[in-house]
Amino acid sequence: MSSNPNCYVDGKALYERIAATEEFGIGVQRLLKGAQKALMCAEKDPMTCHRAILVCQNLRPIGA
Question: Domain ranges in the chain?
Fold first, then answer.
C-alpha cells in the first residue's frame, strides 16, 4: 500500500487516491511487465483482496 498519508482517512485506504499516485502508476507498469509470467493471489476469497479491488480495477482501462 501507499506510504502517502493523504491516501488514508482514519486508517482506511482510499483506493482512488492510491491509484492516482505516481508510485501506483510505476507499480502497475512493473506488474504489466511481470504479468507475462503469472499473477496470483493467496487470499481465501480473492474478491476481498486489494489486488482485485484496487489493482484490477485500474488495469481494465489500460488493457481495454
Answer: 5-63
Amino acid 64 reads A
pLDDT (tens digit, 9 = 90+) per residue, 12-58? 999 999 999 999 999 888 888 877 666 666 777 767 777 767 777 77
Measured distance CA(60)–CA(55) in Å, rounded: 9
Give the integer Cα–Cα distance in Å for 47 and 41: 10
Cα separation, 27 vs 50, whole angstroms: 14
Cell numbers for 10:
482514519
Length of the chain: 64
